[in-house]
Amino acid sequence: MHAFTQVLTRIAAKLSLASLLLAGAGLVAMTVMVAWGVFGRYVLNDTPTWVEAMSLWLMAWFILLGASVGVRESDHLGFEVGLALSPPPLRAALIILTELLVGMFGLAMLLYGAQLAIGTWSDRMPIIGISRGWDYIPMAAGGGLIALFSLEKLMLFLTKVKAAPLGFSHFSSAQEV
Asked: 47-97: per-residue pLDDT in tens?
């Protein structure tokens, strides 16, 4: 199980870095697009119609990719006071339950996002001319990454590669993977 966990961690680390870089690039691209839209509207008096639709689409990507990285890095809301006050067996059960629930949520996002994408693939977005299904691809991709990163955290905890005294926010440096 340690070998699987090590491979999973290597894959997850690369996917997390790629997600973070893509989310950052999407944020920069959206900022440039919105600036172009403002410039076009107020300086050129010719508003580019595609800016809003593309900006919203990019926003979905960088929010969901960023959220998945947040799950892996434990930079999300948690109830660490409850974990800190819990006896160790209950703390372990709560950590396992949390990762299972987060993983199931990610899988639901993946499955329903894919269903929505497939169901709307034949529709076209009028302003930018691409399939409406592309609106739901970020939800499916983000959900898949959330499920994968949650599985990784669960495996790290179960194999005791890294301890989690207060959730996964503060890993002990027991071993490097």
From this structure: 888 899 899 999 999 999 999 999 999 877 777 778 888 898 998 998 899
Tokens linked to 121: 């693939």
DSSP 8-state code for residue 37 = H
Cβ neighbors of 132 (< 8 A, separation 6 or more) are 120, 121, 123, 124, 125
Q: Which one-letter amino acid corresponds to residue 107?
A: L
The whole-model pTM stands at 0.84
Where on the phi/psi map is residue 147: left (φ > 0), alpha (ψ -120 to 50), or beta?
A: alpha
What residue ranges do the domains of the chain occupy?
A: 2-168
Work out the angle between the directed axes of helices 50-73 and 137-158 (0-180°, nearest 10).
10
